């Protein structure tokens, strides 16, 4: 399973490298081993794209008119040939150039070569209108494909333009504009109303309202108070605000999101890889079959006419062009990644779209995934022999060493940490809690498993209290406990209901005490729930499901979730509250921490896979029928054009549908 996180697909022969159009850095693809269907490294306007085809179409219409409807005495011989050549050049020359470049790169049997041979062959046997028409329709197909790619690219690259290049910092009470990349941790950024934040930071102003659409896909304003975290890409909505930089430019949450999007194209779905490999084998076979169709009948047909059989071979070549598959399939997957991005979900590769489509089990963490992860201390129950204020200060000090939401709840309840307190040998025990030495005495703060581990005797039944409990021991004596409550996310119930409709089994795994986990699971209607789990226990539970040959998506947010995220078929991380380790390990990131995005991600995977297989079925069915008709002399070049360009256009239009769907 670890290979799936680092695996890079290399040396795959490709007829079309659409991913080069979706990557932000396109400058260096001159050395690439694939082909650029835009015929340019920069996006052209729609008019510029269509101009060669318009010129060619105009000249072709006039030529057909002179041939058939308003004949001209001068439109004969070399004049007629030159006219058709002039109509051919605007659309044919770029394709011939691509074919030559492909041959130079040792990719001899490309779709460009097929189209060049077919159309030049049509000219050789005097079928000038058909030669021009085939290349014209092929060029129009390429234009529509380019427009579709540009749309997919814009959907994904909308994330890539979310961060400003410059920021305004306050230095010696003077506003100064600098490059965002040169801002240092600790700098104070001044944000005017409507400005985007360039780096992650902490709000210095008393309060501010932000549009978080760049990160979450939600345009609903998010209010922040002094001291709360704000992220790069958020837009300040109202008054001038100040933010203290807490993270370097390259380490910001948005930088990591952009990096994920950039890397997403390197991990391809098995279907996509198969089609690309298939195209490399399929295309030379088609060329040799076409040669056979042209020459072999010479040995068996009594009235063999070379031009007739050459025409059939050329039709066969046009029909056989695999561009409908090698264009529409990657485009379908990129469309899926783009649709997910618009919904605040990041897929790190098209292969994960395929896996999400076949998920049978969703296993989830509780805290921060199905619950808010915002705890509040409800009650403090300490034995009277201990000084409550002193113990709470010690608990506050040791919990400041942890990033768990419980630590924040205790800090909010107790207040500022007493600077006089000195803790030594602070150690976090995974799945248990914290241990330290305070005033020469052992301090333990965690769950009741921690008490058991250190043989601390207590006189209560933890299972009788339906709250998260934080047990405290000091100087080898049980002090008491704090009760902490977390609230269920507003869309958690909707998430479980939708997963049930999709026929997906749900399981909750948590390190929290079992009766709390069972209470939340019962309230939400989750099928299976297990509490009091260590990180290795979560791994074992997921292994049990995988051992039944069932696919698993694990959803989590904490550092402890990283191992089980890596083990599952698809690891899903909550990108807002989620730890960097979990986000880095995960295959899918939900940017706004909403569990309702889980069934949306599964639906996007299902729709993407459905569209891809629709395109494969359409292309193979139409091509197979017209190939048989063409080889038997029953199909003309016009049917061939439909089998190639027509099918490619239909497949492209079908592929871009997912970008318009609402999930």
From TrEMBL:
It is found in: Cell membrane; Membrane. Residues 163-262 form the P-type ATPase A domain. GO terms for molecular function: ATP binding; ATP hydrolysis activity; cadmium ion transmembrane transporter activity; metal ion binding; P-type zinc transporter activity. It catalyses: Zn(2+)(in) + ATP + H2O = Zn(2+)(out) + ADP + phosphate + H(+). It is an enzyme of class 7 (translocase). InterPro entries: ATPase_P-typ_cyto_dom_N, ATPase_P-typ_P_site, ATPase_P-typ_TM_dom_sf, ATPase_P-typ_transduc_dom_A_sf, ATPase_P-type_domA, Cation_Transport_ATPase_IB, HAD-like_sf, HAD_sf. GO terms for cellular component: plasma membrane. The keyword Protein transport does not apply. SUPFAM superfamilies: Calcium ATPase, transduction domain A, Calcium ATPase, transmembrane domain M, HAD-like. Keywords: ATP-binding, Cell membrane, Membrane, Metal-binding, Nucleotide-binding, Transmembrane, Transmembrane helix. The chain crosses the membrane at residues 49-66, 78-96, 108-126, 132-149, 281-301, 313-334, 611-631, 637-656. Its EC number is 7.2.2.12. It comes from the Bacteria. Belongs to the cation transport ATPase (P-type) (TC 3.A.3) family. Type IB subfamily. PANTHER family: CADMIUM/ZINC-TRANSPORTING ATPASE HMA2-RELATED (PTHR48085), CADMIUM_ZINC-TRANSPORTING ATPASE HMA4-RELATED (PTHR48085:SF5). This is P-type Zn(2+) transporter. The gene is cadA.
